[in-house]
UniProtKB/TrEMBL annotation:
One of its GO terms (molecular function) is site-specific DNA-methyltransferase (adenine-specific) activity. Transmembrane segments: none annotated. GO terms for biological process: DNA restriction-modification system; methylation. The lineage of its organism: unclassified sequences, metagenomes, organismal metagenomes. It holds the Pfam family Endonuc-BglII. Its EC number is 2.1.1.72. InterPro entries: BglII-like (IPR015278), Restrct_endonuc-II-like (IPR011335). Keywords: Endonuclease, Hydrolase, Methyltransferase, Nuclease, Transferase. This is Restriction endonuclease, type II, BglII.
Length: 72
């Protein structure tokens, strides 16, 4: 159709899993199950892009790394 010329996806890198494992909610439960393998992250995205599931549209994929996270 030519409706989309390029796609940009910003998601988390694999190394952010370590950060999510350390974060707990107000009940003391880990947040990692909320951001597990069923949600989009760079590992899942790379697989899909390599298998050409992007419909031929060029994709710029940006993975947020641990160095981008700051605890204040």
């Amino acid at each position: 159709c030519g409706l989309v010329e390029v796609g940009i996806i910003v998601t988390r890198s694999k190394e952010l899993n370590d950060v999510f494992k350390q974060i707990v909610d107000h009940n003391g439960k880990s947040l990692m199950p909320k951001y597990g393998a069923s949600t989009t992250w760079m590992g899942k995205l790379e697989y899909r892009l390599r298998s050409r599931r992007n419909g031929g549209c060029p994709i710029l994929a940006i993975g947020i790394k641990k160095s981008c996270i700051r605890d204040e």
